[in-house]
Design a protein that fits this description.
This is MinD-like ATPase involved in chromosome partitioning or flagellar assembly. It comes from Micromonospora echinospora (Micromonospora purpurea). GO terms for molecular function: ATP binding; ATP hydrolysis activity. Keywords: Cell projection, Cilium, Flagellum. The protein has 433 residues and is of the alpha/beta class. Among the domains are: 39 residues, no CATH class; 251 residues, Rossmann fold. The chain has 14 helices and eight strands. Helix 8 crosses helix 9. It is globular, with a radius of gyration of 37 Å. The two termini are 21 Å apart. The N terminus is likely disordered.
């Protein structure tokens, strides 16, 4: 594609220092209950007389209890321990001349390995968000799943874990772009007044790509003023109803009565494509053209059931429904074949849009050039240069024989080159949404 623009201790544990209290589970320091509620450990001096207010330790540890290791425990209820009368103190033990008895400095043991540093350091009270952040796991390093790198990863049974190559990284980036949340309903309109410019193919392949990657809620709507071909190139369904049938029965979808299940009588499910098609009138004698109000009424209904709408347009820029589609557009896609006449028609249409106050649509538009089987006798550089100067991106869609046959298109039958190209185009479109 081209585009312008971690003695005996277990591994992972710290060995106990001499004098450290060690519990049966191997952790250094007190069990969880030995920590005060404010996070400070409760401790006793390692040797020397106990300071005033400290409870005496029991002479023996009950069976099954961990060795206290010098830690004071809460005194159990019972008779008070015998001692000197109130107001008297034990005499201090004799010391060598010139020395004063002082208690040994307290020793703070190492906290258990299960404790972690707090995520807050400013002294503020922790919040639920602080607690939840502790559970956030570091994402695993990406491993290649495509190409030769993926083969090596599989054949070495995990001994070699190669990261994704450049192509796979680009593909993943494009998929992320297509899958992102657009924050509401979005409409993509595909235009070129000239017939045979690839509008219908672009609608189908964009809807397929977005449907496949996003998992549905995508509609392809043929807004041709008369007879369109979107329904002919799409997969057939149990019915052949069109937009005119839906317009006639629109009242049943208005208010709180409309249900998505009822809509299946008017749109055609595309199966593996994971999108639906709302076909235009397929009869050459269907009657009057759709009006701007008809477009607005239909769009109001379908917007309740879909997140992304792709609108195919006809060849008459003066038609009311064509103009109404432009007014509702979030992202414009300009299609053309790699021929001068197709490109010139698209250029004149951009002139019209700019003159009618739609400069933003033109500047943010994505141009898609459908390539022929051979590049002989086409002035591709001139086409790319002109539309790169006027639109946000110019991308090439490779030739696909399946598309050229005019038969219904199935996503699984497309070549990998075509799928990759249209994924790139879809990512560029998503960037503007």
């Amino acid at each position: 594609m081209h585009q312008f623009h971690g003695g005996a201790y277990h591994v992972g544990e710290q060995p106990a220092e001499p004098g450290d209290a060690t519990w049966t589970n191997g952790q250094v320091g007190p069990p969880g209950g030995a920590y005060a509620g404010n996070g400070d450990p409760t401790f006793a001096p390692a040797d020397g007389p106990p300071p005033s207010g400290w409870a005496p330790l029991p002479a023996a540890t009950p069976p099954g209890w961990p060795v206290s290791g010098g830690w004071a425990t809460a005194a159990a209820p019972g008779p008070a321990a015998s001692g000197p009368p109130a107001g008297q103190h034990h005499p201090a033990p004799a010391q060598p001349d010139g020395l004063t008895a002082e208690p040994a400095p307290p020793r703070v043991p190492t906290p258990p390995a299960s404790y972690s540093e707090p995520l807050w350091s400013d002294g503020a009270t922790p919040t639920a968000e602080d607690f939840a952040r502790r559970r956030q796991a570091r994402p695993a390093d990406p491993v290649a799943t495509m190409g030769v790198r993926a083969v090596l990863n599989r054949t070495t049974l995990g001994l070699v874990k190669l990261p994704p190559g450049r192509h796979e990284q680009e593909v993943k980036h494009d998929i992320e772009m297509v899958r992102r949340n657009f924050g509401g309903l979005r409409q993509v309109t595909v235009v070129n007044p000239k017939g045979g410019a690839g509008k219908t193919v672009a609608i189908l392949l964009l809807a397929m790509t977005f449907g496949q990657k996003r998992g549905g809620y995508v509609l392809a709507w043929d807004n041709n003023e008369t007879q369109g071909t979107l329904g002919m190139r799409a997969q057939q369904d149990f019915h052949a109803r069109t937009v005119r049938d839906m317009l006639r029965d629109l009242a049943q979808f208005q208010g709180a009565h409309g249900r998505v299940g009822d809509l299946s009588q008017y749109v055609r499910s595309q199966g593996e494509g994971m999108f639906d098609v709302l076909a235009s009138d397929e009869s050459a004698t269907g009657g009057e053209m759709l009006t701007a109000s008809a477009f607005a009424e239909i769009r109001d209904v379908v917007s309740r059931f879909y997140k992304l709408i792709f609108v195919d347009t006809g060849n008459n820029v003066r038609a009311q429904n064509w103009q109404a589609a432009m007014d509702a557009t979030d992202q414009l896609v300009v299609t053309m074949s790699a021929r001068n006449d197709s490109a010139e028609t698209a250029a004149r249409m951009l002139d019209h849009l700019e003159q009618s106050g739609r400069q933003r649509l033109v500047r943010q538009a994505v141009t898609v050039v459908s390539m022929p089987p051979s590049r002989k006798e086409i002035d591709l550089p001139a086409i790319q240069e002109h539309f790169a100067a006027r639109t946000r991106a110019v991308l090439l869609a490779p030739y696909e024989r399946l598309i050229d046959t005019g038969e219904p298109i199935r996503y699984g039958q497309l070549s990998s080159a075509t799928r990759d190209a249209w994924l790139k185009i879809a990512a560029s479109v998503a960037e503007g949404l």
